[in-house]
Amino acid sequence: MLTVGHIVQPKLLDCKPGTTIREAAAAMSAARCGSMVVRESGDVAGIWTERDALALDLGAEGILDTPISRVMSSPVKTIAADMPLGEAALRFKQEGVRHFLVTDGAGTVLGMVTQTDVVQNQGVEFFVHLKEVGAVMSGQPALLGAGVTVAEAAARMRSGRWDAVVVEAAGRFGILTERDIVRLIGEGRVATALGEAASFPLVTVAARDSLFHARKLFAEKRFRHLGVVGDGGELLGLVTYGDLLASIEQDYVRELQEALREQEERFRLSQHSLLLAEKVSETTLEGIMVTAPDGTIESVNPAFAQMFGYSHDELIGQNPRLFKSGRHAPGFYRRMRQALASSGEWVSEIWNRRKDGTLFPLRVKISAVREKDGALTNYVAAYVDISQQRQTLQGLRESEERLATLIEALPDAVFFKDGEGRWQIINTPAKRLFDLDGVAWRGKTDAELAALRPRLQEIHAACQASDERAWAQGGILHEVEVIPASEGKPRYFEVSKIPLFGEDGSRHALVILGRDATERREAEIALRRERDFTEAVLDTAGSLIAVLDRKGRVVRFNRTAERITGYAAEEVTGRHFWECFLPEEEGTRVSQVFERIMEGDIVPRYENHWLMKDGSRRLFDWSNAALRDGQGRVEYLITIGIDITERKRMEDELRHLNENLEQQVREEVEKNLRQERLLIQQSRHAAMGEMIGNIAHQWRQPLNALALLLANIKDAYEFDELDAETLDQSVEEGQRMIRRMSATIDDFRNFFRPNKKKVRFSVLQAVEDTLSILGASLKNHNILVTLEGEEDAVAWGYPNEYSQVLLNILSNAKEAILGRGNAEGRITIRLRTDGERIALAVRDSGGGIDEAIMAKIFDPYFTTKESGTGIGLYMSKIIVESNMNGRIEARNVEGGAEFTVSCPVAPPPGNGAAAG
Q1: Whole-model pTM?
Q2: Angle at the Cα of 751 (from 746 to 753), degrees rounded to 5?
Q3: Helix (H, G, I), strand (E, B) or coil at 287
Q4: In angstroms, rounded to a whole number, what is the distance separating the alpha carbons of residues 713 and 719?
Q5: How far apart are alpha carbons 187 and 182 in whole angstroms?
Q6: How far apart are the C-alpha atoms of 238 and 176, rounded to whole Å?
Q7: How far apart are CA 466 and CA 331, in angstroms?
Q8: In sequence order, what are the beta bridge partners of 548?
Q9: Strand, helix or coil at 759?
Q10: 610 burial via Cβ count (<10 Å: 0-12, 13-18, 19+)
């Protein structure tokens, strides 16, 4: 709908109150403007129009030099910018004016609108097409002679309430209008005769022409008056813009009334829709908030109030800034405003604050509500509390992490593929099995991996075919797959494949578990060959077969039955089978089935438990067949049983696994934690043993010296040489030795005290501390230790733990040297750094490490010593690689082995690093 605001003229012609009438008229004429606004101190004080010019007594002396403030109209009439043009046309008629100041809702002046603007922009083509000019003509024109002066004409126009007069001169017609009066005032020509002042010739239209044609001429010529002539060319009168507006008023009002009736009907329907919307808003679980364009909250639904902890009345009139959490940068809200301005919609996740101060996450969608003309009326925001959803996602992530930990801890190869056969998750045994170290395997199919590892092309093809069988079967598939090894000897894997389907039946994922069964399979093959030979001779049936007579007594019991039940055939033959095998609770049901069979109603399949000789139970799937006598009666029942105990157990275990997977993950994690605690405890015990041994080496010399001192005291006493001075010296020497031994204890205690946090520490100092502990032992065994390389390097980590790693490596080197029986040994410690990492290499002359076990030396419990624990190097690897972000490696060198420990260079002290 077109409003006044769409056609307002923002530029106003204005002047000060002291401006003369002559100056104002000249400015209006130059600007071709029909009005001038008078401003005082920036505010609009009045208006002077062309019609006001007619009110002047132009014959009065000095009238043209009168200040305009004395003749202006005040106050100035105003009209709202949002008023429709139809209502504006009525206001022009009611007020009898041709100019309105246009203001906004706050009273600010936006510009000017004229009667001409309304006529030009009003959609009245329908009305003006249907009417002729003669129907709206003003009547006989005011006719003045050419000799009448401008001042006299203005007086005649004022008394006759005319806005124009026709001037006749020498048989020609011209016209003098209000605008001409203003122009002549500005030029100071109010005494000029109309023959010179009027505009010639008078532009005319025929009385039979349509108002549409007249309106078009008004627009083209920029006139507000046209002469109207008859069929013979005679002048009948004048038609003006005002006549045009008045002529369409009645028709427009009638149309407006009809539109109002339609609007009332739409309003009734809208009220119904609003009622439904209100009910939806009240019952929805989403929080709904409606704000004004400036953000003021106008309404909220109950879910919103409950979500934020406020009452309805507390929220109305507030601003959404009330809920700001402080967790979002200003750019976050700037992007929100930009999105609303460009597309009218914004969707995101946001943190807000409840009334009690707690922060919580929400998903919010804000939509701008606009009128048909594009005017913004409201914002509507819908909020969904996603706290629970985030908690669920966090729990899912934690569950996935626990599952990943369990999968990695399993010794079996584990694979996860998606529905299209792309590899998604594998553990280390699976990676090692398919030689995938350094290969970008994730997201690839078996065919794509086969192209990267041609020697495994056949097994990848077999895996892919096996996958398809699992999908086709729709349930767990157990198979044996053969993996060729690098030395050509194949390895056998028992593979279980579990296909997972989506709700729509689509392939979702495939879980694959593979266990190396090579050794067991080889043993089984050898056993099966022997067993097959025996069973082929003794018994051809592989199932439990029993033959029963009409009374249920066993008449035949095959070897397989003997093997499964534990009974020899002689033990059960002639006895009722329910006495031997049936559990008490199944006796009635099975005996009823047997009676039905004996009556000729053969039950081909059923399941039940049998008691074995050792008291255990097993579940069998039975197939029945009857042998009949000559009269057709059932004489014997042949029942063939398949032991399905393990299958049922596995099905139950799988179901239990699916139902309790998370519990199993927790148990496995706890098991790993217990094992790690055990390793740590064992490591401590081993370290304690090492420490006691080293203390013994350190104390051996002081103890020998102390024993010698005591012997000297005794000898001096026996030979009467023990005087007070000698005794004091001996006591002082003994106390000095005891203090040295006490200091040794303190050194060892500090050495094995664990560090609480990472610090900067000297690697050279750590080496010297370690050698101070182990030095006596190495020296006693004639092992020479040399230190080469840079003067020092500062590392980042745990100095005591680092020293323990070095102590373990040096102790192993000592044991290796002593194990060779060498009279002398040598250990070389080399320190180097590249600016980012520090490498400390310990090389010994102990003969090196057997290449066959090189890959296992860091495994837990692996040891080559008779009394070793197998956890020293394992714990060293954990300390260096897991705790200090370093790396420990071993290799054989000429004459011995070399262990290299690398760790990060310490950051500068100014970066928050503590000194150690």
Answers
A1: 0.31
A2: 95
A3: strand
A4: 10
A5: 9
A6: 12
A7: 54
A8: 554, 637
A9: strand
A10: buried
